[in-house]
Design brief:
Length: 599
C-alpha cells in the first residue's frame, strides 16, 4: 500500500473477461450490488448522458457486445477508504470501497486526465490530485470544479468473494460524460431581440452558468455572447502551450452548444446596459432585452505606456492567435516579458526552448513574493535563472522604443539595451467593467462588481461572476474578496444559475489554482491574502516542498511542488470546515495529511 510520497506497490489483478448474453441479470444492479434505482438508465448511472462528441446512440447501450465484465479482485483486497485502478481489458476503472460497499467509475479526471487513484477519497467523493475537482462516487457527478464533465459509473457486484465490474466499453474509453440537459421548449427566432437569460462572456463562469441552467431543467432561451471569435476554450493553457490552436483548446464545440440550445454570439462587444428597460446594447447597434442577466466579462490587461504604441510585436496574451504569434516571432529571436504575473512567467518559461534569449522585467525584485512569499518566490526565480532567463526591474527601464511598427529594444537606465523581437505584457489585469459605469450596477473603487452570496448585484435580475466580482467569502467571515481563479469562476457560474432558478445556494468550495513552468507544477489551495507567516516543509532547492501560509495561528492556504496530493488533501480538510492550526504543521510531521487510501 502506498501513500502520496511513495510509489504504490504493484498489485497483480486477475482479470477474467466475458461478454454477457443475458442483460437482465445485472441491469437492475447498482454499483454496490443492490437493486438499482437507475435500472431504466444507461449503465453509466444516469439517464441520457452524452458527451461533447457524443456519437453513442441509446440502442447501442443495450447490446451485450458493447459491455465487458471482469473479476478484478477479492473482496478482502481493499479496506474501507481505499481505491484501486483496475484493468477490465477494454479499459481501466477506479474501484472504491467505502463503508463496506464497492463502487466503480472512470479512473481519469475529465479535466486534464489526472489519475484519480492518486487523489483523495473522503465522505462519498474523490478529489482530483492535480486541480481539486470532486466527483461523487455513487453517481460520478462533478461536485466541485474545475472541469465541465462528470465521470461514467459502472455496475459492481460481489460473486463468490470476487468483486465483478460490468462496464460499457465506450464509457471505459471516453472516461467522461456530460450531465443530462433540458432543451429549449420555446419557439425562438434567432433574430428575436429577447432572451430569458443573457450571459455576457463565454469563459468558465458563463459556460457553467448556461450548462447548469439546462442541467437543472431550464427550458427557456439562453443566449451567451462574447467578444471572442471562438467557442469557449481553455484560456489557462494559452500561456503554457503557446502553439496550441483554438480547436485544440476547445471546451465545447458549436455542435454541443446547439444540441443543448445554448446560443452563442461571437465577436459581440457590449457597450452599455440599460437596467430600467432590461436591455443590453452592442457595439454594432444590436439591442437585446433580457429577463435575467449574468455578467462574466473577466479581466483586461493593465495598460502600459511606451513609445511607438501601434506596434505589431507587443502582445497582451488574450487569444490563441496571440499565443501562436508570440511563439512564431520568438523562434530563435529575443523575447522580453514585462511583468512577473503567473501569465508572464508561464510565457517566459514556454519560450526558453524556442527563443535565443528571454528577459523578464518585473515590478517586484522577487516574483510571486506577494502571493507565495519571498522564499518560495526566490526558489522559483532560481529555476528560471538556471534556464538562462535574465531578470531586470521595471524601475531600471528608461524607455521602450519602437520603429516602423515594431518594438525594437528596451533601454535600461544603466545604458544596457535589451533586444526585443517580441514583447509580452504580463503586468497584471483590471476588471473588464468599463461599459457598466453609467448602468446603475454598483462597482467598487477598483471597478469590480459587488455581489451578494447568491452572485446577485444591487440590481434585481442582474448577476455577475468570475474575475469581475467582489463576493462574500465564508471562510473569511463573508468578507468581500476577489479571487480571479479559473476554478472559482466555475463555482460562480453554478451559484448564479441556481439563484436565477430560485434555488439559492451559497459558495462551498476551497479556491484552487495551478501554474506550470519547465515541466513542474505549482499547486495552490485556499485564500492566503494577508498571510503573516510561511511554514515550509521539504526542500526548496530541490523544488520538492509544501508551504503552509498562516494567519493568526491558522493555516489559510497551501502551495506545493512535487508533493501530490497534499494540496488536495489540505483542500479536503479546509472544505470540510475543519481548522488546521499553525502548530499542526510546524513540527515537521505532516503524516496525518498524507493519503494512504490508494493502491
Amino acid at each position: 500500500m502506498g501513500g502520496c510520497f511513495s510509489k504504490p506497490k504493484p498489485v497483480e489483478v486477475k482479470v477474467e473477461l466475458s461478454l454477457l448474453d443475458k442483460e437482465k441479470e445485472v441491469d437492475g444492479l447498482s454499483p454496490n450490488g443492490k437493486a438499482s434505482p437507475f435500472a431504466e438508465c444507461r449503465p453509466n448511472g444516469a439517464l441520457a448522458h452524452g458527451s461533447d462528441d457524443d456519437s453513442t446512440l441509446l440502442p447501442l447501450y443495450h447490446k451485450p457486445r458493447d459491455y465487458v465484465e471482469a473479476s478484478v479482485c477479492h473482496v478482502k483486497d481493499l479496506e474501507n477508504g481505499q481505491m484501486r485502478e483496475v484493468d477490465l481489458g477494454s479499459g481501466r476503472a477506479l474501484l472504491i470501497k467505502e463503508h463496506g460497499e464497492f463502487t466503480a467509475m472512470g479512473h481519469k479526471c475529465p479535466h486534464y486526465g489526472a489519475p484519480l487513484v492518486k487523489g483523495v477519497l473522503s465522505k462519498g467523493h474523490v478529489r482530483c490530485p492535480w486541480h481539486g475537482a470532486c466527483f461523487n462516487i455513487a453517481t460520478g457527478d462533478i461536485e466541485d470544479f474545475p472541469g465541465l464533465d462528470s465521470l461514467p459509473i459502472f455496475q459492481v457486484r460481489v460473486e463468490k468473494d470476487k468483486v465483478v465490474i460490468r462496464a460499457n466499453k465506450q464509457a471505459l474509453q471516453s472516461q467522461k460524460r456530460s450531465k443530462p440537459m433540458a432543451r429549449c421548449s420555446a419557439v425562438i427566432n434567432s433574430n428575436t431581440g429577447f432572451s430569458h437569460v443573457l450571459i455576457i462572456g463565454s469563459g468558465p463562469a458563463g459556460l457553467v452558468c448556461a450548462e447548469t441552467l439546462r442541467q437543472e431543467g431550464f427550458t427557456d432561451r439562453i443566449v451567451m455572447c462574447t467578444m471572442d471569435k471562438h467557442p469557449p476554450y481553455d484560456r489557462p493553457k494559452l500561456s503554457k502551450s503557446l502553439e496550441s490552436t483554438a480547436e485544440q483548446l476547445r471546451l465545447r464545440s458549436m455542435d454541443f452548444l446547439q444540441d443543448h440550445d445554448i446560443e452563442l454570439l461571437t465577436e459581440k462587444e457590449v457597450v452599455a446596459i440599460d437596467v430600467k428597460t432590461q436591455s443590453v446594447i452592442f457595439e454594432d447597434g444590436l439591442r437585446m432585452e433580457y429577463r435575467k442577466l449574468f455578467i462574466a466579462t473577466g479581466s483586461r490587461p493593465k495598460p502600459m505606456n511606451y513609445k511607438g504604441k501601434d506596434v505589431r510585436n507587443v502582445f497582451h496574451l488574450r487569444t490563441p492567435e496571440d499565443a501562436n504569434s508570440i511563439a512564431r516571432l520568438a523562434n530563435n529571436k529575443n523575447a522580453v516579458i514585462v511583468g512577473t504575473s503567473f501569465v508572464g512567467m508561464e510565457v517566459a518559461a514556454a519560450l526558453t526552448d524556442k527563443a535565443h534569449s528571454v528577459s523578464i522585467i518585473g515590478i517586484e525584485s522577487v516574483p510571486f513574493k506577494k502571493a507565495l512569499g519571498e522564499k518560495v518566490g526566490k526558489a522559483i526565480m532560481k529555476l528560471f535563472e538556471a534556464n538562462r532567463v535574465k531578470f531586470y526591474m521595471l524601475n531600471e527601464v528608461s524607455e521602450m522604443v519602437g520603429h516602423h511598427g515594431q518594438l525594437k529594444e528596451v533601454v535600461l537606465k544603466s545604458g544596457k539595451v535589451l533586444r526585443a523581437d517580441v514583447c509580452v505584457i504580463g503586468a497584471g489585469s483590471v476588471p473588464a467593467t468599463g461599459f457598466l459605469k453609467q448602468s446603475g450596477i454598483h462597482l467598487d473603487s477598483k471597478g469590480f462588481i459587488t455581489v451578494n452570496k447568491n452572485m446577485q448585484t444591487n440590481v434585481d435580475g442582474v448577476f455577475a461572476g468570475g474575475d469581475v466580482v467582489m463576493f462574500p467569502f465564508p471562510p473569511r467571515n463573508n468578507k468581500k474578496v476577489n479571487i480571479p481563479h479559473w476554478q472559482m469562476a466555475h463555482v460562480h457560474g453554478k451559484v448564479a444559475a441556481l439563484s436565477m432558478m430560485g434555488r439559492a445556494t451559497e459558495i462551498k468550495t476551497v479556491p484552487y489554482f495551478w501554474s506550470a513552468m519547465f515541466g513542474k507544477t505549482i499547486r495552490y489551495a485556499g485564500y492566503g491574502d494577508g498571510f503573516d507567516d510561511v511554514i515550509i516543509q521539504g526542500d526548496l532547492d530541490e523544488l520538492r516542498f509544501v508551504a503552509f501560509y498562516t494567519r493568526s495561528e491558522e493555516v489559510v492556504s497551501v502551495t506545493s511542488m512535487n508533493y501530490d496530493p497534499i494540496v488536495s488533501r489540505v483542500a479536503e480538510v479546509l472544505g470540510s470546515g475543519k481548522t488546521i492550526k499553525k502548530r499542526d504543521v510546524e513540527t515537521g510531521d505532516i503524516s496525518w495529511l498524507i493519503d494512504k487510501g490508494s493502491q
